[in-house]
Design a protein that fits this description.
Helix content is 26%, strand content 22%. The chain is α+β, with helices and mostly antiparallel strands and 645 residues long. The chain folds into five domains: 209 residues, no CATH class; 79 residues, PGBD-like superfamily/PGBD (Muramoyl-pentapeptide Carboxypeptidase, domain 1); 73 residues, SH3 type barrels (Roll); 143 residues, L,D-transpeptidase catalytic domain-like (Beta Barrel), CATH 2.40.440; 53 residues, no CATH class. A hairpin with a 5-residue loop joins strand 13 and strand 14. It is elongated, with a radius of gyration of 32 Å. The N terminus is likely disordered.
């Protein structure tokens, strides 16, 4: 045989050109095959007992189907995925498994189908499967009929395909309980079939939207559901996608056919199905490309800020659970301007008293609480650096005697992480708890001014509640001029604004945004107690009178986003949900939608998941293309600076 690796590449390339990138083997196939390989050599007992049969409910029964489903379940448990009954069927018979794939629209019949009645065609180009036999892909299931009783007798897992010099294809499988090829007692083993072996009846395939059949009035099943969803996506159908092709669907088909210049038959024939499939595939590709381009564009926009953050070495990577490192940073002395907490000290462009700027939000730092770095000393003047109200690194000179050094509170410390939108509270070197927060937004009309300034600060004074428009922000503690740490706001309606708040405030809007950037620059802290029993009320009651508590607002510029394994389970609400979640029972989702539907992190890059955003309430990771693009910019920044990460 030819070199297998070269052949597999050639086969995958040909399949990709014909069917699209989805035809390539993916992580799901690798996980299933890894599970199957781990079972090679397992043999049934003389009496026919197998662990696969016992797992499936018949310890001494036939077990080829049970072996396949057992392997899927094993992969799910080992890799943390949910492929059983979503990617592969929980099958106890071959007939049941093949029917499941048919219902999913993912069964490719050989020579027109098991009974010779199903005329299938490739949705990519309309060519009949009978005219161009399907070449199975890694991870497909192969269904076999041995005894000519018009029923399926056997199933296996496709490991790979090879081709001889004369062009003959061979399907390599891993199977259990093969009575024909032996040995006895039956075992888990590798087998090989010619592609044209007459016993092969069809394949359960990973590829969605690979083949189709003509759908007419009265048709039912998953294929009809997909047709209805596609017609709805294209704007020709507004009914329920219930899986029965009735008058409403026929009308939608005719509308589509008329709009595309096809014969107005009301039947989803070959030409109609191929046309619809092509449009949907184009939309999916455009959606995926748009998500990728958006992530790359937004990451590139942060390159200069990233370089500045890396070069200034204010923050770097941060692990809140590294208590020793976090506490060491919190206990470092802090240098502040020795004036009133609300006074602005304007910077000079040299040791000469001339101010650098008259910009409303630049050119100054607030006194008493804002930590600064001293970069230089000249003629008694000090050159200092810190983040301004625009969250930009700014530096300039201040007059002699304007600085003082403060030793932080030895008991308490806080770190605000703008990347995770969490407040981490430490006591005497130990992480006490973490709370959901919202720092300043980076979107909207005043996005630059609203972003919470990064840096080192001191909690300086308890100011209590205040109004911000119709938002009542209670229990506020100042840490940077006009920036305060306060309870998540309540929204009030009507004439109460500016007056004394009562108990009618609506917290739902601002609480739903916790875990994301949503404030005007202050730090909003959760009102509800967390699992440890802490909330902002606890901070107010216990810490508002403490002196010199250091609070670090940790920036995200210059920091890599954590990478997530592609097979990591993610969850979503298929009934119109707009987010993906790390928790199947996410507390931020209404109970009637729980438990959420399972998918994988890698699947988020594919349509229809391209518009889903990460849930902040359950700390879902950033989207894959966002992580990839952001980290590429981090690497570029280090390279341009000539530094090593």
């Amino acid at each position: 045989m030819k070199n297998i690796a070269a052949l597999l590449f050639a086969l995958c390339l040909a399949a990709t050109m014909l069917l699209g990138t989805g035809a390539l083997a993916d992580d799901r196939a690798e996980m299933l095959i890894n599970a199957a390989v781990s079972q090679l050599g397992y043999a049934a007992s003389r009496g026919g007992y197998t662990k696969y049969g016992e797992w499936g409910g018949k310890a001494y029964g036939e077990w080829c189907s049970e072996f396949v489903s057992w392997c899927v379940n094993f992969a799910d448990e080992h890799y943390g995925t949910a492929m059983l009954d979503s990617v592969y069927p929980m099958q106890t018979t071959c007939e049941h498994g093949a029917q499941w794939f048919k219902d999913q629209g993912r069964y490719v019949a050989v020579n027109g189908g098991i009974l010779g009645k199903e005329e299938q065609f490739y949705l990519a180009d309309g060519v009949s499967v009978k005219e161009r036999p399907y070449i199975p892909q890694r991870g497909d299931l192969i269904y076999i009929e041995w005894y000519k009783y018009n029923r399926l007798d056997h199933v296996g897992i496709v490991e790979f395909v090879t081709q001889d010099e004369d062009g003959t294809y061979y399907v390599h499988t891993i199977e259990g309980n093969n009575h024909i090829l032996g040995p006895e007692p039956t075992v888990v083993a590798r087998y090989v079939y010619r592609l044209d072996d007459p016993s092969i009846r069809g394949y359960g395939v990973l590829q969605e939207g690979l083949v189709g059949t003509e759908l007419a009035m009265g048709a039912e099943g998953e294929a009809v559901v997909n047709l209805q969803k596609n017609l709805k996506t294209l704007g020709f159908y507004d009914g329920d996608c219930a899986g029965k092709l009735g008058k409403g669907t026929v009308t939608a088909i005719k509308k589509y056919q008329k709009a595309r210049g096809l014969t107005e038959s009301g039947t989803a024939d070959q030409a109609t199905m191929v046309s619809i499939s092509g449009e949907i595939a184009k939309r999916e590709a455009e959606a995926e490309d748009k998500a990728r381009q958006k992530a790359e564009r937004e990451a590139r926009e942060n390159l200069e800020a990233t370089k500045a953050a890396i070069a200034a070495d204010w923050f770097g990577e941060f692990d809140p659970y590294d208590e020793e490192a976090a506490w060491a940073r919190l206990m470092q002395d802090i240098t502040v301007l020795d004036v009133d907490q609300k006074e602005r000290i304007y910077l000079s462009d040299g040791p000469n008293g001339r101010r650098k700027t008259n910009d409303e939000h630049r050119g100054f730092f607030f006194g008493a609480s804002v930590g600064v770095k001293v970069l230089d000393e000249q003629d008694g003047w000090s050159k200092i650096q810190a983040y301004n109200d625009y969250d930009e690194l700014e530096e300039g000179w201040v007059r002699p005697g304007r600085l003082k050094t403060v030793t932080p509170n030895p008991t308490w410390g806080m770190i605000i992480d703008k990347r995770t939108q969490r407040l981490y509270l430490y006591k005497e070197g130990k992480l006490l708890t973490e709370l959901l927060i919202s720092t300043g937004t980076t979107k909207g009309q005043n996005e630059d001014f609203c972003e919470t300034a990064s840096g080192d600060f001191l909690l300086i004074s308890a100011t209590g509640g205040f109004w911000s428009g119709n938002l009542w922000c209670d229990q506020a503690i100042r840490f940077n001029g006009g920036d305060l740490l306060h309870m998540v706001p309540a929204v009030y309606y009507g004439d109460i604004v500016g007056g004394t708040p009562d108990d009618t405030g609506d917290y739902r809007i601002c609480e739903s945004a916790l875990g994301s950037r949503a404030s005007h620059g202050c730090v909003r802290v959760q009102r509800e107690k967390n699992a440890d029993g802490y909330n902002h009320q606890w901070i107010w009651n216990n810490l508002r009178s403490e002196k010199n508590i250091k609070i670090i607002v940790w920036d995200d510029d210059g920091r890599r986003l954590p990478e997530t394994a592609g097979n990591t389970p993610m969850y979503y609400n298929p009934d119109g949900g707009e987010m993906f979640h790390a928790d199947q029972y996410c507390p931020g989702v209404k109970s009637r939608y729980l438990p959420l539907t399972k998918t994988t992190y890698a699947a988020l890059e594919s349509y229809p998941f391209t518009k889903l955003t990460p849930c902040n309430a359950c700390a879902a990771p950033q989207r894959p293309e966002v992580v990839r693009s952001w980290n590429a910019v981090i690497d570029q920044a280090y390279e341009e600076l000539g530094m090593t990460p």
